[in-house]
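Record type: monomer structure entry
Structure origin: computed from sequence
Chain ID: A
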Amino acid sequence: MKLTLLALAALPAVTAETILGVYIFHRHGDRTPKALAPANLTSLGQEQVYQSGAYYRSRYVASDASSPIYRLSSDVAVANQMTVTSQTDTVLQNSAQAFMQGVYPPVGTVSVEKLANGSSIEGSLNGYQYIPINAVASASSSSNAENNEWLQGGSGCGNAVVSSNNYFSSSEYLSTLKGTQDFYQGLLPVINSTFTSSQASFKNGYTIYDYINVATIHNSTIPSEDLLTNETLHELFWLANAHEWGLAYNETDPIRAVAGATLAGQIVTQLNATLTGKSKQPLGVQFGAYASFLSFFGLAQLPAVSDNFRGIVDYASSMAFELVDTSDAAVTASSYPAAADVSVRFLFANGSAAAHAPVAYPLFGQSETLLPWTTFVAEMGKFAIADTAAWCTACGNSTGVCAQFASGSDSGSGSASATSTSGNGISLPVAGVIGALVTLVVILGVEALVYFVAGLKLVKKSALAASSGPTSELKA
């Protein structure tokens, strides 16, 4: 039931190029089902993200890396060379920790210190490296978002809430709901310990798929297992894909993809900081929800490459954005490349990168997988949300953190404006505090919706309008 993508371009051989920096967005590893809260990272999931981290170490970090990142320490983690973030969620936080242990494993005798009294001491756990994971709470203040089935409830983005819930009144959704009723009812012998007859429908297409998918991975026996033919499992998967795609992206209503838009703003901000800072902080890693992948895929026109980009990415999937110097000159602090000599390459791995090596794909309907930096920024700027003012405008919010932007003063157009500056970079309207607010209010809280595991009921639009809580759906 894996999402298989056609590789348009194998990873190019790295010859006369230097990787100046990388931004990685990563999904968590295998976990227990959402319908049986609390959700927890499994041993399999831990191993998936750890091995993914080990792959990225071999590609970017190790002393013998195939594409070493300029200025990044190869063995001992240096905290100010990287930024690692994750929602305050057990599954995501643990995944981030396991991933970074793959990137920077224990250093053994390198951790031995000689004290003033002449004695020596070795770091605990064979020199285990304690890498800071920046925990960002969601707007819903949930400490374990994976326990909630509908995770975008904390996004707080009013227009995105309305847009995502419009899917439930669309002809596409209603037609599928009606046409698959018998299919889901036929699965009741498999799921009736958790789902009632009224809950067994396309309305809960993702939850039911998730529940059965986890069972097929971990359970030696499943009730009425004979019903789960390959054809049935395939149908479950693609119905879940349709359900999630409809909630994460809509071409005629881009605000539905607010998660991908805000992620795009963060990607450009991080890479721009790497460029302007001459790779002082060349590595950015973020763990987040799979729906952010879907939102970004839609905005970046990746379904034009393959319809499979409309599907749910597998556990431990990742996408990486490489900032590449394409000049033949050696990169040094005194001869750092100009923006005109820098390009960006997009890579995607469906599943753990250790088992499914990342592949380069063209973004924005382009034909090339290596885009000039200025082209990349211009294309991302068409939909990226890079600051709080732009987010508030796009979301139609006027209270809370958005109150200061509600007076009608210049608060942006809802997308990131990126203009060239003198020197090596692209200036963006993003400061440290603003970036923190965007992360707090949007990205890592943007993956959720009005529904909760207990009940799994669809909230009516009238109820949504009356509710003061956020309700749009994007899931991890």
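Annotation 1: The mean pLDDT is 82.
Annotation 2: The longest helix spans residues 43-61.
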